[in-house]
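Sequence design from tokenized structure. All designs in this work follow the same two-part layout: the structure record, then the generated sequence. An example of the structure record is given first.
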């Protein structure tokens, strides 16, 4: 009985961590690691100022630019580029863009 109560308490408080990524989110994680993280995490190009962190970007009300955080705004920014961020138009299929957005919605666990 005590074990069941401990299990229930752990499940309610989320002690087991975030849920596993779906296949689509995992694909988005892979795309992020290969195409985004080198600037937004590592800044391996030594850009000044460094590109903003986009950790949990779609779980917040605003993007680092101050625009309202939405799938449409992120999609536009990725595909058109802005400032030092290059355009990724033609480098993401619709399926890949959907996967990237799905991953960004996880808070990037």
């Amino acid at each position: 009985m005590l074990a069941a109560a401990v299990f229930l308490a752990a499940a309610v408080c989320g002690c087991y961590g975030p849920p596993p990524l779906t296949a689509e989110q995992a694909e988005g994680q892979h795309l992020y690691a290969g195409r985004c993280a080198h600037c937004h995490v590592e800044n391996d190009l030594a850009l000044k100022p460094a590109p903003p962190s986009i950790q949990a970007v779609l779980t917040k009300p605003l993007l680092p630019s101050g625009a309202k955080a939405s799938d449409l705004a992120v999609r536009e920014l990725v595909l058109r580029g802005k400032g030092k961020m290059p355009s990724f138009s033609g480098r993401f299929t619709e399926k890949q863009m959907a996967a990237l957005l799905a991953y960004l919605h996880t808070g990037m666990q």
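The first helix runs from residue 2 to 13. We note this feature because it recurs in several other targets discussed in the main text.
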